[in-house]
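User: Show me a protein chain along with its predicted structure.
Assistant: Here is one chain, sequence first, then structure tokens.
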Amino acid sequence: RRRRTKMRSFASNFRGAHLRLNRMITQQVKRAFVFLSSR
């Protein structure tokens, strides 16, 4: 039971990091797209 809760917390932390990473990537891509289109 204890291990399961630990895994759940790890999964939630991983999901949060993944969402943060996705947001960063989308921002970078958007910036690059704007740069290319403006050029």
